[in-house]
């Protein structure tokens, strides 16, 4: 088509569409990225090297795949050999990468080497990718958007650094974040987010003791909410150990979900864990087609109030003497519509 105004250029487009180029660019510029091996055969030595350097499960990618297509996870050697053989029939090179499940990816939009927008893209429910393609069609996870100033500086920095190796047009850079570092697309999180398991009841109770002096959830209450189908009990884990949790309660009669409790151990405060948990709870609330979220926060807890305000919650009221020690609660709310 002629007469259209564009802000990209052919060279940049080709670079963005070539995962082999991107891998070499990130390696050359020391941008943290997933452990990656580029392969071209299915010989024994190749398979041995992948098992030693990457391990299972691992992800195989064609260089020009997009929207979760041309990306396959394999669990063992037989799957690796057969999938690699099949993919090499359509591509001379395949990228083999380490696999880690994460609840969402950052997408940082960059124009002329400056951040333009930011989004969190969530994995499709029950799946490890944002898009799930099968015989019934395609399902996609939801997303949330925000201004670039709401994004942790470390996330913006790594996105800007990654974009410099491509050009000065409009790009979307995928980034994953943990407590200590940010990494360009699909790197393992030191902190992983997901549902709490019944077997983690004792660990959550220990976390309660570390975080709260008053109004703790008892082990009995924790077990109840872990089994409650109207509750979403989400954990942040470091090395499999809970370092934070968020508890969302819903009811068919409620227009909004209620964040009943949010806790992060001292070591991980101020490092994005609380924000990650809130984002995950909001994701589930939107999936349930709720109109928003509400919560109570201690009047003397300024840090928590600041976190909620940054994440879009507004003060709407106060409950005097709400907590067991007589402290008042501030009522905060975030509306989606």
UniProtKB/TrEMBL annotation:
Species in which this protein is naturally found: Cyprideis torosa
Protein name: Uncharacterized protein
Transmembrane annotation, as ranges: none
Keyword Transferase listed: yes
Family annotation (PANTHER family): AMINOALKYLPHOSPHONATE N-ACETYLTRANSFERASE-RELATED, AMINOALKYLPHOSPHONATE N-ACETYLTRANSFERASE-RELATED-RELATED
Keywords assigned by UniProt, alphabetized: Acyltransferase, Ligase, Transferase
Matching CDD domains: NAT_SF
Gene3D superfamilies: 3.40.630.30, ATP-grasp fold, A domain, ATP-grasp fold, B domain
GO molecular function: acyltransferase activity, transferring groups other than amino-acyl groups; ATP binding; D-alanine-D-alanine ligase activity; metal ion binding
InterPro entries: Acyl_CoA_acyltransferase, ATP-grasp, ATP_grasp_subdomain_1, Bact_Acetyltransf, Dala_Dala_lig_C, GNAT_dom
Pfam families found in the cross-reference section: Acetyltransf_1 (PF00583), Dala_Dala_lig_C (PF07478)
Upper lineage: Eukaryota, Metazoa, Ecdysozoa, Arthropoda, Crustacea
């Amino acid at each position: 088509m002629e007469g259209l105004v564009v802000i990209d250029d052919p060279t940049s487009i080709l670079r963005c569409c070539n995962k082999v180029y991107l891998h070499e660019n990130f390696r050359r510029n020391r941008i943290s990225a997933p452990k990656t091996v580029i392969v071209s055969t299915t010989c024994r030595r190749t398979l041995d090297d992948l098992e030693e350097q990457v391990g299972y499960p691992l992800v195989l990618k064609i260089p020009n795949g997009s929207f979760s297509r041309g990306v396959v996870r394999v669990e063992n050697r037989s799957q690796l050999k057969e999938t690699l053989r099949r993919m090499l029939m359509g591509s001379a090179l395949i990228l083999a990468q380490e696999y880690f499940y994460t609840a969402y990816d950052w997408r940082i939009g960059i124009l002329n080497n400056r951040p333009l927008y930011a989004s969190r893209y969530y994995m499709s429910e029950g799946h490890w990718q944002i898009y799930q393609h099968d015989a019934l069609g395609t399902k996609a996870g939801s997303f949330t958007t925000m201004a670039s100033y709401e994004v942790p500086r470390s996330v913006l920095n790594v996105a800007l650094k990654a974009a410099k190796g491509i050009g000065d047009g409009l790009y979307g850079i995928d980034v994953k974040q943990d407590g200590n570092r940010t990494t360009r697309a699909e790197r393992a999180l030191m902190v992983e987010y997901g549902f709490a398991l019944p077997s983690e009841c004792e660990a959550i109770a220990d976390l309660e003791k570390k975080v709260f002096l008053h109004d703790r959830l008892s082990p009995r209450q924790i077990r109840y909410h872990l089994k409650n189908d109207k509750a979403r009990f989400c954990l942040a884990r470091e090395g499999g150990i809970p370092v934070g949790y968020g508890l969302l309660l819903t009811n068919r009669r409620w227009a909004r979900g209620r964040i009943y409790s949010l806790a992060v151990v001292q070591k991980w405060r101020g490092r994005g864990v609380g924000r990650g948990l809130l984002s995950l709870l909001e994701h589930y609330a939107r999936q349930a087609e709720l109109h928003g979220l509400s919560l109570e926060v201690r009047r003397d807890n300024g840090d928590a109030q600041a976190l909620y305000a940054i994440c879009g919650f507004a003060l709407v009221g106060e409950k005097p003497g709400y907590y067991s020690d007589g402290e008042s609660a501030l009522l905060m709310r975030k509306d989606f519509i």
